[in-house]
From TrEMBL:
Residues 204-297 form the TF-B3 domain. This is TF-B3 domain-containing protein. PROSITE patterns: B3. GO terms for cellular component: nucleus. InterPro entries: B3_DNA-bd (IPR003340), DNA-bd_pseudobarrel_sf (IPR015300), Plant_B3_domain (IPR050655). The keyword Metal-binding does not apply. Pfam families: B3. It comes from the Eukaryota. CDD domains: B3_DNA (cd10017). Keywords: DNA-binding, Nucleus, Transcription, Transcription regulation. It is found in: Nucleus.
Length: 297
């Protein structure tokens, strides 16, 4: 279920009011600390105040993505505290949020940009890695950025009150978990457990060399599931669950076909998948989680 919010003078900048129908259906299941996922491949932390029916702490999000007065935000609730957000300008045209295309002429500036986007104020060289940022331009303009992962900083729920949200601290800006997650324990205690036992549909995929090599591309999702995933856009986050662990995976869209993208290579590496493996993907009732089973290896 989704809702819209138009930025007006009545809004406190960085705060969105959640409408009553949405609160009545989902409000009791939304955790205090939530994540806002952008179509440009970044994720922001925010705070849901159930008593005031407001999402707060979006000041930095609005500044970085240049959200202006009379712009409209469309927020689609994915469950488990995750919201996908789309921005529309005053003409009703979607504003794509890209900030990470690689600048080959000035890599130092690009590195500073990545550090700012990730909100890191400290470097740990021993944890430096390469990171693929998908952009709204698509794979042709994809980029590799170095980034520095601080232990227990990524994807941690440390925000406790509104004073911790919306400032320039290292907790304000986060990158999408699909890029860095090595798999976390999967649970179903976040208000969507009833949907976990329901399978909406499944498909089988035989992994090709391109699905498992060093620059692997994720498998395409069968069109048989289109009725359940037609609303997914570029940058949508889904979850792959195998052997009790869950990986955050980004979705790419090519010629109308949706496929697993950001985070796929890490999923392949950590699960020892190989060429010619036959894998079954079963979409759970929450609409964003796949059970993954290797049928033939």
């Amino acid at each position: 279920m989704s809702f819209t919010a138009t930025i007006s003078e009545e809004n406190s900048f960085g705060t969105l009011r959640v409408p009553d129908p949405f609160v009545e259906k989902f409000g009791h299941n939304i955790p205090r600390n939530i994540k806002i996922i952008c179509n440009g491949g970044m994720m922001w932390k925010a705070l849901y105040d159930s008593g005031r029916q407001k999402i707060m702490g979006l000041e930095d999000f609005m500044k970085i993505h240049k959200v202006k007065q009379m712009y409209t935000l469309l927020l689609d609730y994915l469950g488990d505290g995750y919201f996908n957000v789309q921005i529309y300008n005053i003409y009703g045209v979607e504003v794509y949020m890209y900030h990470c295309h690689w600048n080959m002429e000035n890599p130092d500036a690009e590195l500073k940009l990545s550090e700012y986007v990730l909100g890191l104020n400290k470097l740990e060289d021993e944890k430096a890695r390469s990171l693929f940022f998908s952009t709204a331009y698509g794979s042709a303009y994809g980029c590799y950025l170095r980034y520095y992962e601080l232990k227990n900083r990524i994807f941690s729920d440390t925000v406790e009150d509104t004073n911790d949200i919306g400032n320039d601290s290292d907790e304000s800006i986060m990158n999408m978990g699909a890029f860095i997650d090595d798999g976390e324990e999967s649970d179903s205690d976040d208000g969507i457990e009833e949907a976990d036992d329901i399978i909406l549909g499944d498909f089988f995929a035989t992994l090709s060399k391109s699905n498992v090599d060093s620059h692997c591309h994720g498998v395409y999702i069968s069109k048989d599931l289109d009725e359940f995933i037609s609303h997914w856009n570029f940058g949508q986050i889904v979850f792959l669950v195998r052997n009790g662990l869950r990986w955050h995976i980004g979705i790419n869209v090519t010629n109308g076909r949706k496929r697993f993208s950001a985070g796929w290579s890490k999923f392949v590496d950590n699960n020892g998948l190989n060429e010619n493996d036959i894998v079954r993907f079963s979409l759970r009732g929450d609409g964003v989680t796949f059970n993954v089973e290797v049928v033939v290896d």
